[in-house]
Amino acid sequence: MEVNRTSPSGILPGMMARLALIACLVLVPLFAADIGPTNRWKESTPEEQGVDSAPLAEAIDYIMQRRLPIHSLLVVRHGAIVLDAYFYPYEPTVPHDIASVTKSVTSILTGIAIDKGYIKSAQQPVLQLLNTAPPASADPRRNRMTIENLLTMTSGMTCGAINAAHTAEPELDEMRHSSDWIRYAVNIPMRAEPGSQFAYCSVNNHLLSAVISSKTGESLESFARRNLFDAMGIRELLWPVDPNGLSHGWGDLHLYPRDMAKLGYLYLHDGKWDGRQLVSEEWVRTSMEPHASVRAGVGYGYSWWINVAREPHIPEAEGRGGQRISIVPDKDAVVVFTSGGAHTDEVAPYILRALRSDAPLAPNAAAFSHLTQSLRAARLAPKPAPVPKLPDAAREISGRLYSFDPNALDLRTLSLVFDGKEEAHVAMSIGDEEWTGPVGLDGVYRFSPHGHRRLSMAVSGTWRNDREFLLDVNLFPNITRILFAIRFVGARAEVDASDTTGSFHDVHLSGVVHDRSQPCQQPSEVRRRARAAHVGCSAGGGNRP
To answer: Which residues of 425-462 are buried (b: 16+ CB within 10 A; e: fewer)?
Structure first.
């Protein structure tokens, strides 16, 4: 929760305040199965934990007024949840993609693997630990690449951008297009002596996943469940694997926000949980020290970002699109964000200003009432708008199946059905997935459980003119929100697609009314690229390829 980074009259009796918090602030079932919060987090009014409700309310209002695509904001103080905010359309009924926050989880698991003796130390050379063929070309620098080099993004491989972070990573994309990801990774050429320079490279963390699997004989997810998640009550999660069954070490892990907070709480307490030392205190301390300098005010630890401009430092796990776990040691606080592309730094000053005292504050009925009202409002859908008369094209294209030329998104087929006034229905095949569900035509999302990775999606749409339909597909548990501008011209559908979180812009797709008697196929290379891009022709009238 960095603030200085270049890259937030009257008294209610305590019992009434706690009841109000439970009724108004936390309006969902508790998915994290008392402190240590293994079964259920303790909940509290902000003031009982020395937190000022007024800046928290200001933070919620700021997010809503600026329409920041933040999905959730959670604050833990002195071991209790004092803020648990969710923003439409996200509801914590599904785990959320934490993106590169996964790297910090992999780092925790690396420490546990060392604690348990599966790996001797962070100084052990990587190639000695992998079950894979040796690299095709010899480079003595590669033999000196250690576990610590992978953790600190100083592997020396020609991967990622030097002295920059969160940039495009072609090597990650190329690895995901290969049939053997680890074989690809160990053959990336070296450009520097390991340990000599920082370069943000997600491939490093997938190598860590491979190392742990090689030494333990199980996937990173299985190892995590046995040695970390089960002990912490983290039970529901999604963690994809590569073609050889290795859990993605760099990203794509899906967790509930409350379970993300548990990971921050574990490190806030030096690796101890419910009296058990799950990961050694030494590992936690070393992980949260800056081992590499990224830029002014920002260092990098063992897959943790370190705000070194502030004393004491704030360690953070960060991921694409605004996923974040911030640990504020001097305030005994953990802050968690999930997001669909927001810059959460701008909210951080409000949170830090709210952390006022180590002792309880006097109850503030007005501020707490403001906060609870803002939290209710944050979860509300917009009011439905009048639906204009549908154009003739709606009847013309309703029910048609459009088959698309090979494209980077691997959109194979698309069909829209307009059979009601306020709703339509969409069915689209992307890669090996079928995304189907209702479409709100009144400015309000309709929800379906049939989205990417079989998680929820929210869809709305509107006719821009007589021939162009804007389809808004919000894959909120998966961060991505895709806007499809579809122009219907005769038998063709011309589509421009953009992801509002910035992963792609203005991708043009061209489709034609599909002959349902013929199978819809696309080259395997296109399918691989789409899967690597996290998005995904089914059988229009033939077999799925």
So the answer is: bbbbbbbebbbbbbbbbbbbbbbbeebbbebbbbbbbb
What DSSP string describes 449-488? S-SGGG--EEEEEEESSSSEEEEEEE-GGGS-EEEEEEEE
State the alpha helices, DSSP H only, in 37-130: 53-65, 101-115
Residues 141 and 46 in one domain: no
Radius of gyration, CA atoms only, the chain: 24
Distance CA(528)–CA(128), nearest Å, equals 30
Could you give the CA distance from residue 245 to residue 208 in angstroms, rounded to a whole number? 14
Q: Which of 322, 345, 378 is a domain's end point?
A: 378
Alpha-carbon distances, residue 458 vs 75, 243, 381, 502, 528 (angstroms): 26, 29, 11, 19, 25
Residues 527 and 407 both lie in one domain: yes
Helices marked H in 293-339: none
Residue 21 has pLDDT above 70, yes or no: no
Q: Position 203: which residue type?
A: V
Torsion angle of C-alpha atoms 126, 127, 130, 134, degrees rounded to 10: 160
- What rounded mean pLDDT belongs to the chain? 88
How confident is the model over 122-137, as a mean pLDDT?
A: 93
Reading the block at residue 401, the tokens are 């199946």
CATH number, residue 122: 3.40.710.10
> How many residues belong to the chain?
545
Cα 299 to the center of its chain, rounded Å: 22
Q: State how far the alpha carbon of 290 is from the alpha carbons of 7, 16, 67, 152, 305, in Å.
A: 17, 44, 34, 9, 8
Contact between 119 and 168 (Cβ < 8 Å): no
Per-residue pLDDT reduced to its tens digit, 23-40: 333 333 333 333 458 878
Q: What is the domain extent for residue 467?
A: 392-532
Q: What's the CA gap between 539 and 541, in Å, rounded?
A: 5
Same domain? For 405 and 352 the reply is: no
All residues at 6 or more sequence positions from 472 whose CB lies less than 8 Å from its CB, including other chains = 445, 459, 460, 461, 481, 482, 483, 484
- Specify the DSSP element, H or E, that contains 395: helix 392-397
Burial class of residue 524 in the structure, from the number of CB atoms within 10 Å of its CB (0-12 exposed, 13-18 middle, 19+ buried): exposed
Q: Give 515's pLDDT tier (boundaries 50, 70, 90).
A: low
Instruction: Return the half-sphere exposure (C-beta side, CA atoms, 13 A cut-off) of residue 176.
Output: 23
In a domain, 75, yes or no: yes
Q: Cite the beta strand spans of 78-216 per DSSP E.
A: 80-86, 96-97, 161-162, 199-200
Which residue in 342, 282, 274 sits closest to 112, CA to CA? 282
Tally of CB atoms within 10 A around 540? 20
In a domain, 325, yes or no: yes
Query: In the numeric block, which tokens belong to residue 44?
Result: 């509290």
Which residue in 226, 205, 211 sits closest to 104, CA to CA?
205
- Tell me how far apart the alpha carbons of residues 55 and 428 are, in angstroms, rounded to a whole number: 43
